[in-house]
Amino acid sequence: xxxxxxxxxxxxxxxxxxxxxxxxxxxxxxxxxxxxxxxxxxxxxxxxxxxxxxxxxxxxxxxxxxxxxxxxxxxxxxxxxxxxxxxxxxxxxxxxxxxxxxxxxxxxxxxxxxxxxxxxxxxxxxxxxxxxxxxxxxxxxxxxxxxxxxxxxxxxxxxxxxxxxxxxxxxxxxxxxxxxxxxxxxxxxxxxxxxxxxxxxxxxxxxxxxxxxxxxxxxxxxx
Amino acid sequence: xxxxxxxxxxxxxxxxxxxxxxxxxxxxxxxxxxxxxxxxxxxxxxxxxxxxxxxxxxxxxxxxxxxxxxxxxxxxxxxxxxxxxxxxxxxxxxxxxxxxxxxxxxxxxxxxxxxxxxxxxxxxxxxxxxxxxxxxxxxxxxxxxxxxxxxxxxxxxxxxxxxxxxxxxxxxxxxxxxxxxxxxxxxxxxxxxxxxxxxxxxxxxxxxxxxxxxxxxxxxxxx
DNA sequence: AGATTCATTTTGACTAATCAAAATAACCGT
DNA sequence: ACGGTTATTTTGATTAGTCAAAATGAATCT
Lengths: 223, 223
Hints:
homodimer; 223 residues; DNA-binding; alpha+beta; SH3 type barrels; two-stranded antiparallel sheet; Arc Repressor Mutant, subunit A
């Protein structure tokens, strides 16, 4: 059985490789940063994960999941996102507080509980942040969305995902009506100043940094 | 924050001390056995728990929880039993499979989740095995019940608790209508042979060893 | 191409938790 | 009170995971 440390390494390698180019190696530096360990620790761990056949380690270049490693990582990610969904939908917890909770629970629940949770929640496709939940068969939707930093302006949009897990940011997004499901419109964008202005249907305009806007994924909606 | 190993030691010390005489020391041997470690390991850990002020260690005699240790232990036990209740009542899992699951989850859920689970379940007083759930204020009901090995014969009884966590035994109990809530009657008891016979309302009699009968706690019912 | 910079790996050391086996203390019966 | 049995503690080692800091290799920039 994989320890929760191992599960965490695999999960973060998966997340980083989804973020990067397809088939690319995940560099050790990024991995170490994601796991909040010093680089040397990540290297040590990479060697043992490679010995266990869970990752491929190209020394001095980076790591990549094997098929088996990916299987384990997807299972952990599925647990994480279903647990988050459970905590918000059933226990009515705030979506901004749910991440650290799921971070621990994802290593504690069995596949049996996972399946029952999935059924209880009605086999949801995404978690409360809009992050896709890997299917039981290990399929992870990779639909690519525009962000408030890149989308067309003036058109009505629906927020589909918020790719940040810090409570601060999530709180901010909720307060300003930018949670998944919300409808907004980009009223202005100034690349030089690094500013995006958005407007909710009947609200006053709100200014966001490009960095923040880039974390809000949207899809056009028939207006 | 206490590690899950620490939480486990404290929980088992609590369970063993509840089982024994009030105020008695829990011997190291029993503790080591309960935790499935060699005695030397339990001694080492006892020293560090004592240093942390969680237990009192009387070398060569045994251990006892301090007020703080008891507080932590009760919190863990509360999590364990509420999780079991959740798994059975909400996720519809079998009561015989739920113990090992809760054994991991009890260390992974926060007090926040604990409280919400408690509310969701309607503040239950006992878990599916009939074991009392410590209150949020740290009160643990210590009601003392007769067992099928010690109760009056011929009278109608209600099963209130089954003090075993092995899936085999729980399965057996359920198959034979001896889960909490069931009504039974002791039709015979032979101390010499170590046998107890019980009968369900409309069922055929069932023979149990005294050891097994001692694990089924019952209360008289107006009949 | 050569030197500098930056990421990565190595090395040595540490903590938590464990075991095996030797040493020691407590208890119990005569 | 003595000797033997049994429980407990000590001692020495092991494993997983980590850090700090030195060593090394890759990449970049004139």
